[in-house]
Amino acid sequence: MTGSQSLQRTVKQLGWLSSCLLVGLGCSTAPTVPSAAGPAGIWQLVGVNGVAIPAVIISAHYNQQIASEDIVLRANHTYAMFTVERFFTGNIPPATADTVYNLGYWNTTNGDLIIGAVGATQSGDTLSIRSSDRGLSVYARQ
Q1: In angstroms, rounded to a whole number, what is the distance separating the alpha carbons of residues 49 and 59?
Q2: At a CB cut-off of 8 Å and minimum separation 6, what does 33 contact?
């Protein structure tokens, strides 16, 4: 038997074995509806206080334009947040933006989702975070 014939035979055997496994798994009595996804994953900011991104937050001392923001909630309960923003006074944001990185931990306690020190709410593929400095930030799962 040549090397190529041996390889073809091995591929056929693996194909047959995987077919058998799939048939066996298909007969499972477990429900086929996927369970609701937890908070782990990548979340992209879509709006702040009802305004789509890029959003401007006006305060007494400065204005902040949030161009984009992503939060990565890892399965090991750590998170990384990446924000592209511009701080300015007056009416026109500067041409260049700053990227800010925040790292920390997230957890669920008695069903409440806490990211860093801030409470959050997950509803399907939507994540909402209310903070005292920004207001309500809404994210979509990516």
Answers
A1: 14
A2: none
Q: Predicted confidence band at 19 (pLDDT cuts at 50, 70, 90)? A: very low
pLDDT in tens, 48-68: 999 999 999 888 888 999 999
Give the domain ranges of the chain: 1-33, 41-141
- CA dist 16 → 4, 7, 19, 141 (Å): 18, 14, 5, 38
CATH number corresponding to 41-141: 2.40.128
Would you state the structure tokens that stand for residue 56, as one six-digit string?
């401007």
Distance separating alpha carbons of residues 50 and 130, to the nearest angstrom: 12
Q: Which pTM does this prediction carry?
A: 0.71
Structure tokens at 8: 């073809």
The tokens of 74 are what? 């890892």
